Amino acid sequence: MNITDIDDKIIKRARQNHLYEQYLNKNLALSKILEDVESAMKPFIVKLEKEEDPDKKGMYVKIKAKVEKALSEVKASQDEGQSRERLCVDGKDVLCDWLDKTHGSEVTDNSIFARLPQFFEEDFHKDMEALNEFFLNVKNLLRTTPGTGVAAFEKWNPEDVELNKKYLQTKDAVHEALCDNVNTRTALESLRELIGEANIYMANARGANRTPNRMILKNIASYIMYLLKVFGAIEVEEEIGFPQSTTQNVNIEEAVMPFLSAFAQFREDVRTISREQKATGILKLCDELRDDVLPNLGVRLEDGISPPTIKLVDRDTLMKEREEKLKKEELKRLEKEKKKQEMEAKLAQEKIPPWELFKKETDKYSQFDDKGIPTHDAEGKEISKGQIKKLTKLYEKQEKSYNKHMGITGKEGGS
Length: 415
Fold this sequence. Notes:
Layout: H1 3-25, H2 30-50, H3 54-76, H4 80-90, H5 92-103, H6 112-144, H7 158-179, H8 184-207, H9 214-230, H10 252-276, H11 280-296, E1 299-302, E2 309-312, H12 315-350, E3 365-368, E4 374-377, H13 385-414
Antiparallel strand pairs: 1-2, 3-4
Helix pairs in contact: 1-5, 1-6, 2-3, 2-4, 2-5, 3-4, 6-8, 6-9, 7-8, 10-11, 11-12
Keywords: Aminoacyl-tRNA synthetase, Ligase
GO molecular function, one term: cysteine-tRNA ligase activity
Protein name: Cysteine--tRNA ligase, cytoplasmic
């Protein structure tokens, strides 16, 4: 398979996804979907019978069996909503092929062809961020926990045993995948699952104020580094983590980490004393140092556990993180301000006596009854009974809100 074949497959998949989404958005009747799936099955069965590749043929047989089962069960079901959803999901493969053949030429919007590769690109970046975060957390653990002597001995708990079991299972799965004609996709999927499990394990340990198992995490990180070298993803000898870009043959992390650790501990001590003495100004400066100064130097400092976590991260990455954080904080502030204004407007509305509700609207009304409900419009014409009925409902609603407000105010005033 060459690059052109791959491009054609991506374009076809994007077009099929677009047509399938359009089909779902039509909210067709169950009878119509049944008719379409049965129509789609005819060319699909022809394709199955002509297929000579045993792997593809096996896949088509499974799809055919799944769709036929869905058709049979849907016809016998009384639940139309659930049946419609079931048929759309189980019949997706045959529907996509059929829709592409019948309506594929109608798709002219080029933007839809960018969605699928964009999805894979975003998925890739998420995986790389998770992997990099895993390496940073493991390196911080290795720096802050003893690696030799009696202090390095750890009694395993059930969570440790479970993670180690997952690690050994992953090694077997990766070995089996690579022996199967170098099936890197399956191997990487197994690795991704292991990294996810390890990240959850570390997060749970932090939540329980428990130190994660140093040995297991180091073994997992070292194994991943080994595979990255095997796959050619990294070239230089790096113990754990992606290599830092540098023009000198020196490990920057080893050189600066002792100073950063001492600095972080000093800051933590200052924060502890400041909290005891309620020195909010100093605490604010410590936060600014963490949020504004250190990220600009390529250092991420994470509070919450003692000692604080220190991570060397690309400066541009930290600047983007900072921008995202500021955006979220601004959105949160605006939302809070909006709710405050809505509450103030609601309170101001509740304070208006119902008999005064319409009297300021002189551009709409000229005469009112004894309750303050309009009877004539601005031109002096009598308001219709239907309009008076609507205004009366508004009056009664305001009366209810006003009485409730005055009742609450009265109780507060008397307490």
